[in-house]
């Protein structure tokens, strides 16, 4: 089923139709029982607050959704973040950053940094904040961390990158592999071009692979054993460790790109989200 949906999605070239297809369909309740969502704005960036019961007011997760920098904040990500909030006991603000091609790079990383600064300005200390994101959102997590570091903003306690794409030149050896049930290399690169809008793919704000990771907070990197971005995940862990950053790589055999969106129906998805929640909670305390 995953391969069939991926094939249909990759065949759609018009961005409006692609967004409509990606956001279509619901299958039962989206958020876990007791977890509530409400629209919000942080740092001038719109998005959605997702809160589990009895979450502390002085701690939060900034979640940066995937979707190739071109697709929106949909129920598949809402379900993932709801599980993450339930398992961690923490609220999350999911930033609905500007999308390409209408708003190409660097609009998205600028919005993500603004949302992070907005959380700080709201009174939540950096030591009680975590960043998390999947796919393009994992890329934006790193871009946000590096921008915050370079501008002298206090850094969060931890960050989680799920199936991140860190090299927009796609030089990783796994990128050409065909085992990923969800993400197609051609589809990925078509949307990279939409996102860059002519910008240099070696710009570290677009491709963290070409940047300096020193001074970043502890990172958890999760990747599926069959996904085309496995090389990016492995290279991210190696780069982070070489820069003196605490980094943990968790590879899930047989899994595809952002399999987390299949929680709560698939054990591997639920377990991966629980691992991410535990990592965040252990750093925030």
Q: How would you characterize this protein structure?
A:
The longest helix is centred in the last third of the chain and has 18 residues, at 267-284. This protein is globular. The chain is an alpha/beta fold and 285 residues long. The chain has an eight-stranded mixed β-sheet, with helices on both faces. Strand 3 (60-64), helix 3 and strand 4 form a beta-alpha-beta unit. Helix content is 36%, strand content 16%.
Order of helices and strands: HHEEEHEHEHEHEHEH
Q: What overall form do the CA principal axes indicate?
A: globular
| SS element count, helices | 8
Quaternary structure of the protein: single chain
Task: Let me know the average pLDDT.
Answer: 94
Rounded to an integer in angstroms, the radius of gyration calculated over CA atoms is: 17 Å
SS-based class: alpha/beta
Q: Approximately what portion of the residues adopt beta-strand conformation? A: 15-25%
DSSP strand count: 8
How far apart, in Å, are the first and last alpha carbons?
39 Å
Helix content, binned percent: 25-40%
Which sequence of strands runs across the widest sheet? Answer: 1-2-4-3-5-6-7-8
The profile of the biggest β sheet is: 8 strands, mixed
Unreliable runs: none
Concise summary:
The protein has 285 residues and is of the alpha/beta class. The protein has helices at residues 2-10, 15-22, 75-88, 107-121, 136-150, 185-196, 230-242, 267-284, and strands spanning 36-42, 45-51, 60-64, 91-95, 129-134, 158-162, 219-224, 247-252.
């Amino acid at each position: 089923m995953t391969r069939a949906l991926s094939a249909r999605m990759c065949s759609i070239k018009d961005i409006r139709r692609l967004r409509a297809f990606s956001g279509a369909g619901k299958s039962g309740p989206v958020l876990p029982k007791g977890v509530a969502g409400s629209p919000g704005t942080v740092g001038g960036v719109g998005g959605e607050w997702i809160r589990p019961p009895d979450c502390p007011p002085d701690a939060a997760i900034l979640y940066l959704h995937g979707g190739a920098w071109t697709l929106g904040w949909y129920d598949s990500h809402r379900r993932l973040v709801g599980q993450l909030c339930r398992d961690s006991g923490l609220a999350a603000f999911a930033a609905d950053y500007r999308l390409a091609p209408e708003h190409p790079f660097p609009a998205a990383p600028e919005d993500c940094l603004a949302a992070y600064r907005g959380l700080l300005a709201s009174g939540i200390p950096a030591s009680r904040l975590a960043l998390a994101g999947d796919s393009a959102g994992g890329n934006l997590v790193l871009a946000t961390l590096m921008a915050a570091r370079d501008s002298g903003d206090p850094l969060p306690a931890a960050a989680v990158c799920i199936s991140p794409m860190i090299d927009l030149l796609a030089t990783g050896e796994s990128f050409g592999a065909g085992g990923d049930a969800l993400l197609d290399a051609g589809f990925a690169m078509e949307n990279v071009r939409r996102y860059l809008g002519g910008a240099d793919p070696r710009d570290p704000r677009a491709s963290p692979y070409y940047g300096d990771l020193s001074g970043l907070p502890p990172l958890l990197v999760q990747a599926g054993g069959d996904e085309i971005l496995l090389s990016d995940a492995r290279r991210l862990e190696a780069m982070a460790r070489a820069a003196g950053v605490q980094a943990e790589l968790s590879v899930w055999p047989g899994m595809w790109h952002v399999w987390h969106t299949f929680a709560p129906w698939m054990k591997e998805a639920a377990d991966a989200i629980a691992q991410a929640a535990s990592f965040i909670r252990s750093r925030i305390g």
